[in-house]
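[09:14] KT: can someone run the structure on this one? pasting the chain below
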Amino acid sequence: RNVSVCAATRSGAGVVVLWNGLAQDRSEVVELPVNVHALSVQTLDGTAVPSQVVPSLPSVTNYGAPAGGALGTALFSARVPAMGFAAFRFSTPSSLAERAADARHAETVTLENEFLALVFVDGNLERITDKTSGVSAQAKQSWLMYNSSRGEGQNSGAYIFRPYNASEAVPVFSAAPTLSVVRGPVADEVHQTFGQWISQRVRLAKGARHAEITYTVGPIPVGADGKEVVTRISADIQTAGECYTDSNGREMLLRKRDFRSTWRLNQTERVAGNYFPVVTSMFIKDAARQLTLLTDATQAGSGCVHDGELEAMVHRRG
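[09:31] RB: done, structure tokens below
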């Protein structure tokens, strides 16, 4: 997603109204694109709301041109009643407010709140721990790409994912990513850059039971071969070739590597043949642990290509 473009909020002053269509209260972290370094947020009755301003990810169009995004993103915590709304007034403080602390890359960085701890080693996400249960799992994230098939039967294209010769994905960037840390009263974040065309933010909000990953990918460099860009999380979870994906957001379906429950499969595409639609979620698990990936848009993905790995397609270029 790319949510850093909004002309109405860039000046750092205005009123925003949030609507909750669910039948239960919601507490969320709200993002506002702004071109200021600090923001004051209040409810309409004057109650101060914790807030912070963090750097925005790059904003680019589908063609790689700058999209005119704001330099910063204001964060604040909002509670909205069931089937109701809440309004908040935001403005630039008259005195310089405390900015979110920014620290540069270190060998080991930890994002931590009341429930989760995420450990980054040499710039990459390495481990996730559920502090409530004490369960910990390796969760090494990487950015990879498959080379598209050309000239051997069906080519990869707009409606076909077919890696060249069922090839393994290769890293998009061989060196360690750059990393910086932003800490504040609403959330702590790690900002990463993988080469020249992938930027990523990993956010752990106060009180959250999940981490949020947002990225900007592209423009993908043009070359002789097409590129199918994926992000992969490798865990030490024993999956035996199985994963679960949602059925249009309604139920979770068991997926098995190179297997279909209603017919005998002659598997000719080791990678693409184990990819599935991911409308809202997919997960892998063993007897003791489970790692779940929730998406905010429909993607293709798999937890069956390799044991212990979740993989999601994020961008393609022929």
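[09:33] KT: thanks! The two ends are 21 Å apart (CA to CA).
[09:34] RB: yep, looked fine to me
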